[in-house]
Design brief:
single chain; alpha/beta; Pdz3 Domain; 6-stranded antiparallel sheet; 4-stranded parallel sheet; 16% strand; globular
């Protein structure tokens, strides 16, 4: 899951300190959690990036707003590489940059109501792209932002391209007036900034020849472009609050409904079917004349169904991409363009070898995760114990997509004397059967599955928890899951963690 900021500490009044390291400069100065560093010298701090640049001096002046409401100023001399020893509550200190697009596959329009507020943030902040590899669209940058990227050399950036052709990018972002992403990447390259790109592919829209052209355009932009990931569109049963629009156009127009128009991101001109300025039941559209009729002028491009890929279609995507990757291995010395793991699993195809993923530049995008797991498991299994001191049974929880892969893991674990391991693939009742990945499992679905599995203990996939590994998407923590399922649960993010957990069972006595 991409990093999602908590808005509470983002007040615009400096970086709120969450923790102070023992014996650090900050502790010596008397800084405490709840204090906020507002500025260093004349530089007002907008985020942790500003902070890192500002403290890289031998002498700095800190302007601090204390938790008790006092203003304090400290001047100190330090090594330029020495940190103050503070951890901030959030990496952003000022307003989060929100998204101004209307992507038809936007996950937020597929979320039910009632989750924690951070899950509804339509963020598109280039700073989070630099800090946490969040993918952003680069459609909301000001000239000041560009100057800052140049000044601080914020590299690499991660850009959601979806299509390089301006027409098709307008469709995929649901927005007419867009900068040409190819020009933006050229500008980043001139600044010495590297770029990793992604394309969320939709059947009968930006796949096929549109996808081929997008890939070739991005290949031509190497070396600034360092990698391309192609991932399949994901859709939930909550598509747009249960209304399930059947076309891309209908999905785009959901962003213009009364429920969404008043949310916390920037208001964009509406796509009208005709040249009039009629109303939609919540006031005058106020649409500019040059924007009217844009959606209807796109015609058949937006009238195609918004749907998931079939297995046969996933195979065609792989067949399109793999020959390009093979060519680029000869040309660049790396595969460069990668279908996500989900395409291979959908198509029933074997995953490429690890060397085809290079240094896993798109790992967090679901590219190479399964191959990495299988290879790590091949090594970790050699460190498993021969037996346990007391019999027990273990549930390996996962989404339905990777259940066949985990079956071989469960089979090997069950060879340990005293251990019975069972894969528990959890159908996603909450988001619908089109959602098969482990990262979108909810505790509400996992808990009944654990009760029905009849195991003594369970391992849950770390990816079903937030960035910090603390809460599920429906706001459960591990103790609550354990209490409601009636058995001890733990997290495992990779085979090494799984093997360590099993080895620890050799020290567990029968209760």
């Amino acid at each position: 899951m991409e990093y999602q900021p908590d808005l509470k500490p983002i007040t615009g009044a400096g970086g709120v300190i969450a923790a102070v390291a023992p014996a650090s400069l900050a502790e010596t100065l008397g800084l405490r959690p709840g204090d906020a560093i507002v500025a260093i010298g004349p530089q007002r701090l907008h985020d942790v990036i500003d902070y890192r640049f500002a403290i890289a001096e031998t002498q700095i002046t800190l302007h601090v707003h204390t938790a008790s409401g006092d203003e304090q100023v400290f001047t100190l001399t330090k090594d330029p590489d020495e940190d103050l020893g503070v951890e901030f509550a959030e990496p952003l200190f000022d307003r989060l940059r929100t998204c101004n697009n209307k992507c038809p596959f936007c996950f937020l329009t597929q979320m039910p109501k009632g989750f924690r507020k951070t899950l509804y943030l339509k963020d598109d902040d280039f700073r989070l792209s630099f800090l946490y590899s969040n993918f952003v669209t680069f459609t909301n940058l000001s000239e000041d932002d560009w100057q800052r990227i140049e000044r601080q050399r914020l590299s690499p950036m991660h850009i959601s391209v979806h299509a390089t052709d301006p027409f098709w990018r307008a469709v995929m972002l649901g927005k007419r007036e867009l900068p040409d992403v190819r020009d933006q990447i050229r500008r980043l390259g001139a600044l010495g900034v590297e770029v990793h790109t992604q394309i969320v592919a939709c059947p009968d829209a930006n796949d096929g020849e549109v996808l081929r052209q997008s890939i070739e355009d991005l290949v031509a932009l190497h070396p600034p472009v360092q990698s391309i990931a192609v991932v399949p569109v994901g859709l939930t049963k909550y598509r747009f609050d249960g209304r399930r629009p059947s076309t891309i156009k209908a999905a785009i127009q959901v962003h213009e409904t009364a429920d969404w128009i008043a949310t916390n991101w920037e208001h964009q001109p509406l796509w009208e079917e005709s040249g009039d300025t009629g109303t939609r039941g919540h006031g005058d559209t106020g649409i500019a004349p040059q924007m009217r009729g844009f959606c209807s002028r796109l015609g058949a491009a937006t009238d195609v169904p918004l749907r998931c890929f079939t297995g046969a279609e996933a195979a065609r995507v792989i067949d399109l991409i793999e020959p390009i990757g093979a060519r680029l291995r000869d040309q660049f010395g790396m595969t460069f363009v990668y279908p996500s793991d989900e395409f291979y699993i959908l198509a029933g195809r074997p995953l490429p070898p690890a060397e085809d993923y290079d240094d896993m530049p798109q790992y967090s995008n679901g590219v190479g995760m399964v191959r990495d797991f299988l290879d790590l498991w091949a090594r970790a299994r050699r460190r498993l114990p021969a037996r346990l001191p007391a019999p027990t049974s273990l549930a390996l929880v996962c989404g339905t997509l990777v259940a066949p892969m985990l079956a071989q893991v469960a089979a090997r674990l069950s060879k340990i004397a005293g251990l019975t391991a069972r894969v528990v693939p959890v159908p996603n009742q909450f988001f619908g059967d089109t959602v098969t990945v482990s990262g979108l499992l909810t505790a509400q679905d996992v808990i009944p599955a654990l009760r029905a599995a009849g195991c003594a203990r369970a391992l849950l996939p770390r990816v079903m928890f937030d960035y910090k590994g603390e809460r599920t998407i429906d706001d459960y923590d591990l103790p609550r899951i354990a209490a409601e399922s009636g058995l001890p649960v733990a997290l495992a993010g990779d085979p090494d963690e799984l093997a360590r957990y099993v080895r620890a069972l050799t020290r567990t006595e029968r209760r």
